[in-house]
Write a structure and sequence with these properties.
The protein is an alpha/beta fold. It has one domain: Rossmann fold (3-Layer(aba) Sandwich). The protein contains eight helices and eight strands; from the N terminus they run E-E-E-H-E-H-E-H-E-H-H-E-H-E-H-H. The longest helix is centred in the middle third of the chain and has 14 residues.
Length: 233
Amino acid sequence: MVDHCVVDVGGIRLAYQVSGEPGSRPLVLLHALGETAATWDGVARAFARSRRVYALDLRGHGRSDWPGDYSLELMKADVVRFLDALGLGPVDLIGHSMGGVVAYLLAEDHPERVKRLVLEDVPVPRPREPTVPARPDGELAFDWQMVPNVRAQIDHPDPGWLERLGRITAETLVLAGGPHSHVPQDGIAELARRVPGGSVRTIPVGHLIHEAAPEAFQEAVAAFLPAVSDRQR
């Protein structure tokens, strides 16, 4: 059973989906730019067999507030306040693409909050050639005003993000989408090298690994996350 909930985190309402047995070890899922918590539906059910799974709509997405004020640092702060609001201790954390940037920023600045970290096809924080995306037609599930703010930060990241990767204390699995992904794979490999305890695994299905190959994604994550006994729940 999946419950759809909302919590106030410092004046911003964050929507989230939660499943799994209450009291089980928490697993938090952060989606990519323009996605919502629903992107994890295909894999969350499997994770919920042994964990309490929280899939968030980050600010400006889905049923969460669209406040007009957007940055990756604000999203990181929202997630920290979410953990505080729900009284969640150290968590296992999975982030895809933009959500992976939010995840590693959190793990850099609050290493005590993250036990295991999974980064799914996440770009290394180095400058890249900027592009100007066109707004899709029709109604969107996210605030288009957010896109230029977030894209600008990913195109020209704070140099401190790269330097602080060495602060991450969580065991970290970096999943790469292989040659069909638009994210440079040498950068993903560098990201894994810069994180102490980091390792990389390639699932060559492109950028959307958890959607294109959910069984392979689940297997890789399950093998990486520690087994949960009844006493750990």
